[in-house]
Amino acid sequence: MLLSTPVPDEVSYEVTGGDMPAMLGSINTSAPGSTASIEIYGIPGGGPYSIMMNATSVDGEMSCAGSADFDVAVGRVTEVAVMLNCKPSQRFGGVRVDGSLNVRAELVKAVVAPLETSI
């Protein structure tokens, strides 16, 4: 039996760093065989810059995230590889149990006084 893995049909990205405002966008990955690839222009030279990518599968059963740091050289295209690590949505919870031991004292001797009393 072959199980298909749900894949995201859109990957969002955010480029931050330098003296520029954050650049936000999304990449359509709904076509079969598509990848989360994009070329972004207009980034000032220098750095450091960071790109963060996030995606969630259509059915919500899997989420992916990854980031990478990079610098930009003026007049050149810098290639950056972002590994999107995917994991299934959480299906289980947990419990923390703190057990306490109540050790009863062993009664070895008892003294009762007075042995007689008047009514």
Q: How does this model look, in words?
A:
There is one protein chain. The chain has 119 residues and is an all-beta fold. Helices cover 0% and strands 34% of the residues. The chain contains no helices and five strands. A five-stranded antiparallel beta sheet has the order 2-1-3-4-5, with no helix packed on it. The mean pLDDT is 83.
**Helix and strand pattern:** EEEEE
Q: Indicate the proportion of strand residues.
A: 25-35%
Number of strands: 5
> What characterizes the major β-sheet?
5 strands, antiparallel
Helix/strand structural class: mainly beta
DSSP helix count?
0
Please give the radius of gyration in angstroms.
32 Å
What does the average pLDDT come to?
83
Brief characterization of the structure:
This protein has strands spanning 10-17, 23-28, 46-56, 62-72, 85-88. The chain has 119 residues and is an all-beta fold. It has a five-stranded antiparallel β-sheet, with no helix packed on it.
